[in-house]
């Protein structure tokens, strides 16, 4: 863990991409991450890739996490990746959770989303993954 991370809690951006209007699961995850000691910035619904990238940059987060239930995760992530890279956020931990068919996991990993948590993932597993992967 670097000096900055030791001086403050791990900061997690939890974003709801695109037209996905289902955020109950995201709110449960946000509460669990706060209970685990992380500082969580929740974007609310219907964020564009540009908004997610800007908020991640403005909030100086350690983790950029998406919650996707609408099936548009691959096109969204393909648009988000170059924006995150252009803003120098490619050294952050990128994660995604939600309705993510197994056949899409490799494509998400290739885009840079290292943490993939399909619906039904354990909240403790998400928190442990963040702790283990934020350097």
Largest sheet: 5 strands, parallel
Radius of gyration: 13 Å
Please state roughly what percent of the residues sit in beta strands, choosing from under 5%, 5-15%, 15-25%, 25-35%, 35-45% or over 45%. 15-25%
The coarse silhouette is globular
Keywords: Cobalamin, Cobalt, Isomerase, Metal-binding
Protein name: Methylmalonyl-CoA mutase
Domain B12-binding: 9-135
InterPro entries: Acid_CoA_mut_C (IPR006159), Cobalamin-bd (IPR006158), Cobalamin-bd_sf (IPR036724)
Short description:
This is Methylmalonyl-CoA mutase. This protein is an alpha/beta fold and 135 residues long. It is 44% helix and 19% strand.
Describe the overall structure.
The protein has 135 residues and is of the alpha/beta class. Helices cover 44% and strands 19% of the residues. It is built from 6 helices and 5 strands. Strands 2-1-3-4-5 form a 5-stranded parallel sheet, sandwiched between helices. Strand 3, helix 4 and strand 4 form a beta-alpha-beta unit. Helix 3 crosses helix 4 (73-86). The longest helix is centred in the middle third of the chain and has 14 residues, at 73-86. It is globular. The chain starts with a helix and ends with a helix. The mean pLDDT is 92.
Give descriptors for this structure.
globular, 6 helices, 135 residues, metal-binding, cobalt
């Amino acid at each position: 863990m670097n000096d900055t991370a030791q001086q403050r809690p791990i900061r997690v951006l939890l974003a709801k991409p695109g037209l996905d209007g289902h955020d109950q699961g995201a709110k449960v995850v946000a509460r669990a991450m706060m209970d685990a000691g992380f500082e969580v910035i929740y974007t609310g619904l219907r964020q564009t890739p540009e908004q997610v990238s800007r908020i991640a940059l403005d909030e100086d987060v350690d983790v950029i996490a998406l919650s996707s239930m609408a099936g548009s995760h691959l096109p969204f992530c393909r648009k988000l990746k170059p924006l995150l890279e252009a803003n120098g956020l490619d050294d952050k931990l990128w994660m995604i959770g939600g309705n993510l068919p197994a056949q899409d996991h490799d494509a998400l990993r290739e885009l840079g989303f290292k943490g993939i948590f399909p619906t039904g993932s354990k909240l403790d597993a998400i928190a442990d993954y963040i702790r283990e992967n934020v350097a």
